[in-house]
Each structure stands twice: as structure tokens, then as C-alpha cells.
Amino acid sequence: MATSRALLASRNYFSSVIFTNQKCNTTPTPCQSQSINSSRYLLKKTLCDINLIRGLHTRSKDAVKYDWQNAALIVVGACKGIGAHVLKMALNEGVESVTNLDINEKAGFAMQYELNQKYSDKNKVRFLKCDITDEHQHIDTLQNLLVDRRKTYVIVNNAGLIEQRPDMSKEAIDSNVVAIVTSSVTALELMRKDEKGSGGAIINLAPVSILCHLPYFQCYNATKSSILTFNMSLGDEEFFSKTGVRVLSVCYGATDEGLVPIVNAKDKEEIEKLMKTKEGLLTKEKAAAKAVIEIYKTGRTGSTWLSKEIKPAEDITEFIRNIYSDTTEIQCYYRVSIGVIMYDLKDKVAVVTGASNGIGASFVREILEEGIKHVRLLDIDKKTGNALQDELRQKYGKDKVKFVKCDVTDDGQFFKALEDAKKDNGYLDLLVNNAGVAEQDSFARIRKLIEINITALINGTLKAIEMMRTDKGGRGGAIINVCSVGSLIPVSPMFLYSTSKRAAMHFTTCVGRVPCENTDVRVMAACIGVTDTAMLEKLTCYTKDLYEKAQKVLASHPMQSSTAVARCMVEMYQKGGPASIWLIRGGLPAQDVTAQLDKADEEMEAIIRKID
Ligand SMILES: NC(=O)c1ccc[n+]([C@@H]2O[C@H](COP(=O)([O-])OP(=O)(O)OC[C@H]3O[C@@H](n4cnc5c(N)ncnc54)[C@H](O)[C@@H]3O)[C@@H](O)[C@H]2O)c1
């Protein structure tokens, strides 16, 4: 984490929030500059805390209700239009106080006076002149405003610049991107519960045109569209569980007043014609403001809402997520966020156990595609292993692959295979303890299951750490221990398998921490869901009755291919931190669940300490 913070600090302000579309094979450059202004610092800090931007595939639980009473609202750009309506509607909802940040002093003070008169409270509404394109002024204003750590603040970022001329692109970026990022990150840092704040919400507004292609307002649309990605990233549910700050987006159609002042008459006519032909491109200011009021009450963090015409806001989060998963060919492979340390498989030497079939074989194929220098396949299944070796040698070259018949339960065989891989190639960088069985219908099989799934995995891990550790002459490396969803939750009908996989995960967490400090060896666990391999056919249970129940449990989980699993394992190799635990399920991108498990551990620790 410390290294990741340092590396991230060297990153450019903007690049930190942009998703790249390229396969990542570079390690970030070392920290170059520490001369940071405060918004950069805050952004970096926040993104470091998110650690991995993984908002696109998080799922939320049941909706929670929030109410406006006791909230202190800050609207950026509330002198007119949607912002003004939001401000007034929130007052009707009983909000404790509202602050309008705008540059229009005359309108701002007039509104402040009028509304304070109406509510007979001179502190109810406040206008503060603030030019949000002046980054320092913007941050100072927020820092002076969000001072009461016991208060729940709600920030609505409504201001934006629609005018576009060639000389105005910088201004558009400043107000439509930089200001939103600055406001959101500054506010988040001041509100977050894990730093003694009370949580809150950030609602960022964007035009509906970012969801479709329009031949007008290119700069406006481009800059505003960044909000969507930014919000999904910042609105990550796991991050929210720490900060208590929801991040929400509302996309609204063009309002009656929106276009009027900024285009010439001919363009305006054409634009209006176009708008009328497309359902949803027009809305009413009040409807958009109402959407903001309503989504505050129920919106899940990271959600995106559509406000069109006069209809109630519609939650389009899943729709947006699906667009990302459809258009991003292989999400877990390419969707990479800058700011995370990336490990590269090129020129590495790997050993994979249980590599003749299923997940092991698919992983071998994936890492060869990634440009690995050499992979050694260990398995007891000689026939299939040799056939796979021959096939892969034809495709990638003789030196790239070697099959070795090896029973991992025999330490002598296993350790020799590891030593040989290192001797033949100069070093060892990666061990994947993948060999595993699920037959558990006799004592002999149960003993074998424990030997393969637990003992061999532990012995292989300890041996490989010794061979790779930098403090003993190695060059560091990684170990991926193949676990299961059954490591995370008890799968009772397969109780011995589930127990063995839990043990493997627990061992990974423990050994990956303190014993691996200063070794530069990352030990990680892949908790894999139901996968279409021969293991499912070979499965046996302790009793016939349990077997039937196990089949029902397996059928209730989504099936994924071994290829999808293997890609996720590549992603976890690239991004995973020491002792990280990853969930690979349902063909979805790999999800780092370390923080959730840490939290569960902390809760358990608290219970244990209470007993003391
Ligand atoms: N298939 C699933 O649904 C699923 C789900 C979660 C986790 N997993 C885990 O994934 C790993 C791979 O399983 P799979 O689904 O690809 O199964 P698989 O049966 O297709 O492959 C397992 C491989 O391990 C080899 N093997 C078994 N005993 C061995 C030993 N003593 N020494 C060396 N090799 C041995 C087998 O010959 C086989 O090639 C296992 O650890 C399994 O527990 C599988």
C-alpha cells in the first residue's frame, strides 16, 4: 500500500481517473514530483484509498432510505435553472440549511434574502460567491463550509459550461471536469466517516447527451461524459462502506432554457428539431431538480439516473454497466485503472500444478498469450499433460512449455519440479497451486483431498517463498492459491471440500502478511465459483443424500468457463496485493474482496476482545 501511494503520487492529476483501454504491461514510473497543490493531494489520497477502481461491477444490497432533514445542502450553481429548483425543493423537504455557490452575486444575494424571509430564518439560505474554475478558491470555500464533522452534507454539482468555441475548450474542461473532480474529492475527504466525518452524498449532474451521440456540443458532451466514469469509480460500494459518502449521477435532457442563449438561430432551430425527434432528450427543469431530490432519498452509491421529460427519474445503472461489459471485450483483461501497481507476466517463469486439465490448462494458455518466458505444467495426468505440451509447443515454441508428471502430495517430486524449473530458466516468478480434488466419499479419498487441497498447497507455497524471496537472493514473485467460493461461505453438502478450501484461504491470508514481509513475494487466493470442468463430474460427497443436495447448490450458482476464470487470474496476478483475496464468479471480472474480509476479521476481533 505504501508503495502504491508513492507510485500514485507521481501520476498526473487527470490520468488518475481515466480508464485505459489498453492491455497493461508497464510498471508505473517512480515518484517524480511531490510539489502538489491541495486538490491534487486530495484526489491522490482518495484514489489511493480506493486502491482499485472497480465500480463497474459492484452490486448493491437492499436500498436504504435517506431523508433531507438534518442534511446541509450545498448546490454549486443555484442562482437559476435546475440548481435553483433543487435548492427550493430541498427547503420544502425540510433540509437544515442550503448554500448556493455561484458567481452571480446579484441573483445569489437576492435569492438568499427572499428565501430567508420566507423561512423566517436568516441562516437558512446562504449565498457564497465562488468561481469553481479557480481551483484554490473552490477548495478553500468547501473547506470553510464543511467544518462541522457531525453534519451530513450533500453536495450537488450542477454548474457547467455549455458554450463552445475553439478557444474555450480549456474553460470547458475546467468547469465540466476539473471543478467536478475537485468538488467531489474535496467534499468526500471532508465528509468521510472513516476520518471522523458523518458521511453524506455527492450528486453530479450531466446532460443526457452523454448517453447518445449528438452532432452538437462535442466539447460539452465529451467533458461532461467524464462524470459518468468518475462517479462510477468514486461511487464504488466497497469504498462507500468505508467513507459513508454516496456518489450519484443524474443525466437530464435539455431544458427549455438550456440551449437558448448559446447557439445561433439556425443551429438552435435544427437542434430543437432533432431534440423533438428523440424521446428523452428534452426535460423540464423542475423534473430534473425533482430527480435530484428523489435519488438522494434512495439512490445507491455509484448509481446513474435518467431524468427525461416530466417523468420520475429512472435508475439506469445496470444499463450503463451492461454497456461497459458489452463494449469492453474482456473486461477483466483490459479494464485497467491507472494508479495501481501493475505486474507484468512477460519474461516470467511459472509453475502451474494440476495443469493438464480445466482451470490449470486454461491459465497456462492465457499466460502464454501474455508472453510468459516459460511455464512448467505439473500434473499426475500424463497423457493429457503431454498432449497439451505438444500442442502449445507447436504454437509458442519448444522452450516455452514443459510438462512434468508430478504428484504434488509427494514433497520430493513437487520440490524437485520447482527446483528444476528454476535451474533450467534461471529463476522462478510464479507458482499457481491449482491442483485440487473434490471427491470425499471415503476415508481414503478424504485423506487424499486434504493432502492435495491443503498439505501440498501449504508445502508448495512455503517452498516457493524460500526460492523467490529477495531477502534470500531471489527476485521476488507471486503465488496464487486456487481456493473456492466454498472458502468464503460454508458449503455444507460438500463440507470436506469447503473445509479444505477455507483452510487454503486462511493459510494464504496468514502467510501472505507478516511471514512474507520483506520477501517481495505476493501470496494471493483466488476464490473461484462454479466452473465448467471435469471436477464437477468427478465430484462425490460423504453420503448420497449430501451429493443430491450438493448438486442443487451447484445448480443455484452461475456457471462460468475455465477460460473466463483464467483471465481473471491473470488480472489478479497483474494487480493483486500481498495476501489479497479475489472472488472469481459467474464469468464476472475478478473482484478484490480483501477489504470486506478484513472488516469481517476486525469485527470478530472486536468480539474476541470484548470477551477479554
Ligand atoms: N470447477 C469448479 O467448479 C471449481 C470451483 C472452485 C475452485 N476450483 C478449484 O480449481 C482447481 C482446478 O480444478 P478444475 O475445476 O480445473 O478441475 P480438474 O479436475 O479439471 O483439474 C484438476 C487437475 O488437478 C490434477 N491433479 C489432481 N490431483 C493431483 C495431484 N495429486 N498432483 C498433481 N495434479 C493433480 C488433475 O489431474 C487435473 O488435471 C482445483 O483446486 C479446484 O478445487 C474448481
UniProtKB/TrEMBL annotation:
Question: Which residues does UniProt assign to the signal peptide?
Answer: none
The protein's GO terms of the molecular function aspect are: 15-hydroxyicosatetraenoate dehydrogenase activity; 15-hydroxyprostaglandin dehydrogenase (NAD+) activity
Q: What GO terms fall under cellular component here? A: cytoplasm
Ordered alphabetically, the record's keywords are: Oxidoreductase
What Pfam families does its record include?
Answer: adh_short
* Domain of life from the UniProt record: Eukaryota
Catalyses: prostaglandin A1 + NAD(+) = 15-oxo-prostaglandin A1 + NADH + H(+); prostaglandin E1 + NAD(+) = 15-oxoprostaglandin E1 + NADH + H(+); prostaglandin E2 + NAD(+) = 15-oxoprostaglandin E2 + NADH + H(+); (15S)-hydroxy-(5Z,8Z,11Z,13E)-eicosatetraenoate + NAD(+) = 15-oxo-(5Z,8Z,11Z,13E)-eicosatetraenoate + NADH + H(+)
Cross-referenced Gene3D superfamilies, in alphabetical order?
NAD(P)-binding Rossmann-like Domain
Matching entries from InterPro entries are given as: NAD(P)-bd_dom_sf, Sc_DH/Rdtase_CS, SDR_fam
What EC number(s) does the entry state?
A: 1.1.1.141, 1.1.1.232
Query: Which function does this protein serve?
Result: Catalyzes the NAD-dependent dehydrogenation (oxidation) of a broad array of hydroxylated polyunsaturated fatty acids (mainly eicosanoids and docosanoids, including prostaglandins, lipoxins and resolvins), yielding their corresponding keto (oxo) metabolites. Decreases the levels of the pro-proliferative prostaglandins such as prostaglandin E2 (whose activity is increased in cancer because of an increase in the expression of cyclooxygenase 2) and generates oxo-fatty acid products that can profoundly influence cell function by abrogating pro-inflammatory cytokine expression.
Task: Name the protein family.
Answer: Belongs to the short-chain dehydrogenases/reductases (SDR) family.
Q: What is this protein called?
A: 15-hydroxyprostaglandin dehydrogenase [NAD(+)]
The protein's organism comes out as Spodoptera frugiperda (Fall armyworm)
Lineage of the native species?
Answer: Eukaryota, Metazoa, Ecdysozoa, Arthropoda, Hexapoda
